[in-house]
Amino acid sequence: DAGVTQSPTHLIKTRGQQVTLRCSPKSGHDTVSWYQQALGQGPQFIFQYYEEEERQRGNFPDRFSGHQFPNYSSELNVNALLLGDSALYLCASSLLPGNDNEQFFGPGTRLTVL
Amino acid sequence: AQKITQTQPGMFVQEKEAVTLDCTYDTSDPSYGLFWYKQPSSGEMIFLIYQGSYDQQNATEGRYSLNFQKARKSANLVISASQLGDSAMYFCAMRERYNQGGKLIFGQGTELSVKP
User: What is the pLDDT of residues A71-86, one digit of tens each?
Assistant: First the structure.
């Protein structure tokens, strides 16, 4: 049973560029959440997708956008990259609706913006 | 205001000893869940233990137990018989009722180092 997978593992971009990160949820899960984790910090919630729609959004600018596909996989897009966007981007999947289940996290994509 | 506070940036423990990692939280929601995650240097967040606000007993999962003191709004993680592989970052997180199935709010983390 595959867990949450993310690609790519590492990415280096320059300021102003655009980036797309990908996530495949754990088998049987239909909800994907994205988190940004800056160095030395705890993860910060970006947004969550369910039924191909954004259900919740954290305090992130519109440069951060996403998409969920019919197979429940998801993409995170960041436009006009800033140095401050350098971080580990974590994807988590869960099953909705349901009990207060935990979110299963992927290994993350480490983005460096130069 | 910080919703999750972890006051210990770093902790050291001798192998085979027990260690307590502190976590306090702030919420006005009567229904919430508290989580602990382990993050090794590889980056993946590994779920350890969960405590619901209405659970009568403290949660336990193998060597992990959660010391839940609701009145004090604390949810400390106790790791018994520490192992070298326990060296990692540990994060406390909370999910409020209106966010059922939704976002987790994380603390700043505690870096645990287990000495041989």
Answer: 999 999 999 999 999 9
CA atoms within 13 A on the CB side of A30: 10
Question: Is A100 in contact with B33 (Cβ distance < 8 A)?
Answer: yes
CB of A92 within 8 Å of a chain B CB? The answer is: yes
Q: Which of B43, B52, B103 shows the shortest C-beta gap to A107?
A: B43
Mean pLDDT of A22-48: 94
Q: What is the pLDDT of residue B30?
A: 86
The residue that leads in pLDDT, B44 or B17, is B17
A32: tokens are 């994907």
Closest C-alpha to A29, from A89, A109, A101? A101
